[in-house]
Design goal:
Order of helices and strands: EEHHHHHHEEHHEHEHHEHHEHHHHH
CATH class of the largest domain: Mainly Alpha
CATH superfamily of the largest domain: Fumarase/aspartase (Central domain)
CATH architecture of the largest domain: Up-down Bundle
Number of helices: 18
Structural class: mainly alpha
Largest sheet: 2 strands, antiparallel
Strand order of the largest sheet: 1-2
Helix content: 55-70%
Radius of gyration: 30 Å
Shape: elongated
Distance between the termini: 87 Å
Number of domains: 3
CATH topology of the largest domain: Fumarase C, Chain A, domain 2
Strand content: 5-15%
Number of strands: 8
């Protein structure tokens, strides 16, 4: 069956638009121009941009620039989209016209068509509600797109923070549970002084909470928006006090402490705040990479590796080796983190690529940031739920490695001196006998006293 079309006209001429589409001619041109990634806009970004259109309609009605009927119809259309309807009408590829003009018009056209139909009109007629004159009143791609990027990441940030903190809590739970589980420390991947599973895992928790705190600190700067700067930060065609009033309305709608930036032009020239967020995501990814690698090392084996922890099996590990189980959740998290580091490199390149009054790389910049946040949130949650929560500590393995380590000789430094302790270590290394056996044979200390010394050193970090 042949697809039906309606004919719309813009400054470039006429074009067929799918008859059932709520978007219009400019969006249709964009779908023809940019068949690039096959990826549609991020859902939080769509809703953030629509939230801006809703706030603008409220503010523009106050000085009488928009009639009550038009304002009401725009608000109704926006609310329908914010409730999750018509999301599939946002069809412009993530790689599109610089600055996001195509997406801005996609929003304007969908909202205008919904508003007109609710007032008794037809799709594509744009009367009495016009995409540019009414839905886009007092706005520009220049200020709506960077503001929508900020609102979208503010929507994603709590979900990411919850995931990071939940993982930190799980590491703390294991750390507190295993506070007296002594094990051999390792530096340079070699045997070192004794420590505890508790100290190791609580260290992971502390690091993750510090990363979460750093991310949370960026909320304030991200709430400073350039909306109201219109084209090039001039405030052209905006109603009186529009920037302050629309910021207040967005704060009311979003629940975030949104405020107008002190310099609206600067918020279009510079992507500094979102770059800081991207850098914080990279920093979190670097720490998660390190921690994930530790999990894989500690779980290695389980018989020919370290094997001090056992991760719950979530799937068969090999298509050829029966019974093999791999640390797949932390392998996945590694892959996510490496990709996020790459996204940050892309964001950094696009941040510095802004020129004069505008950064035209915003569509791809925002997309990279949204992906990084979504991937990290989902990856951290999956690793926590599917692996970390079922983690088992092999205490016997920890004990065996502990007493086989020459690093225990270090505990004798304060009682018999470094040279004599080194002599004990050499004998242990040469004969393979545990340090505590040699200490007992030399009448330096009983086995029980030595074991108590090991526990105190590992748990308290001091011998006095």
């Amino acid at each position: 069956m042949a697809e039906k079309y309606r004919v719309e006209k813009d400054s470039l001429g006429e074009l067929n638009v799918p008859a059932d589409a709520w978007y219009g001619i400019q969006t249709t041109r964009a779908t023809h121009n940019f068949p690039i990634s096959g990826r549609r806009p991020d859902a939080d970004f769509i809703k953030a941009h629509v939230l801006i259109k809703r706030a603008a309609a409220v503010v523009n009605n106050q000085p009488g620039w928009l009639s009550d009927d038009v304002r009401g119809a725009i608000i109704k259309a926006c609310d329908q989209i914010l409730e999750g309807h018509y999301i599939n009408e946002f069809v412009v590829d993530r790689f599109q016209a610089g600055a996001g003009t195509s997406h801005n018009m996609n929003s304007n056209e969908v909202i205008a068509n919904l508003a007109n139909v609710s007032l008794g009109g037809e799709k594509g007629e744009y009367d009495p509600v016009h995409p540019n004159d009414h839905v886009n009143m007092g706005q520009s791609t220049n200020d709506t797109i960077p503001t929508a990027i900020r609102l979208a990441v503010l929507a994603k940030l709590p979900r990411l923070l919850n995931a990071v903190r939940a993982m930190a809590d799980e590491y703390s739970r294991i750390g507190n549970q295993e506070s007296d589980t002594v094990k051999s420390g390792r530096t340079h991947l070699q045997d070192a002084v004794p420590t505890t599973i508790g100290r190791e895992f609580n260290g992971y928790a502390w690091t993750l909470r510090r990363c979460a705190h750093g991310l949370d600190q960026l909320r304030g700067p991200l709430c400073e928006i350039g909306l109201g700067g219109s084209a090039a930060g001039t405030g052209l065609n905006t109603s009186p006090d529009y920037a302050q009033r629309v910021a207040s309305e967005l704060a009311r709608l979003s629940g975030e402490p949104i405020k107008a930036a002190a310099d609206l032009a600067a918020q279009m020239q510079s992507m500094h705040d979102v770059q800081r967020l991207s850098s914080a995501l990279r920093d979190l990814s670097l720490e998660l990479t390190r921690i994930s690698n530790d999990m894989r090392l500690l779980a290695s084996g389980p018989r020919t590796g370290i094997g001090e922890i056992l991760l719950p099996p979530v799937q068969p590990g090999s298509s050829i080796m029966p019974g093999k189980v791999n640390p797949v959740m932390f392998e996945m998290l590694n892959q996510v983190c490496f990709q996020v580091v790459g996204q940050d490199a892309a964001v950094a390149a696009m941040t510095q690529a802004g020129q004069l009054e505008l950064n035209v790389m915003m569509p791809a910049l925002g997309s990279a940031l949204f992906d990084a946040m979504e991937w990290l949130t989902n990856g951290i949650k999956a690793a926590t739920e599917r692996n970390l929560k079922g983690l088992h500590v092999n205490r016997d393995r920890c004990k065996a490695f502990l007493h086989g380590s020459v690093g225990l000789a270090t505990l004798l430094n304060t009682t018999i001196g470094y040279a004599a302790a080194a002599d004990v270590a050499k004998e242990s290394e040469k004969t393979g006998r545990p340090v505590r056996d040699i200490v007992e044979d030399r009448d330096l200390m009983t086995r029980d006293a030595f074991d108590a010394l090991v526990l105190k050193a590992a748990r308290d970090g001091r011998l006095d």
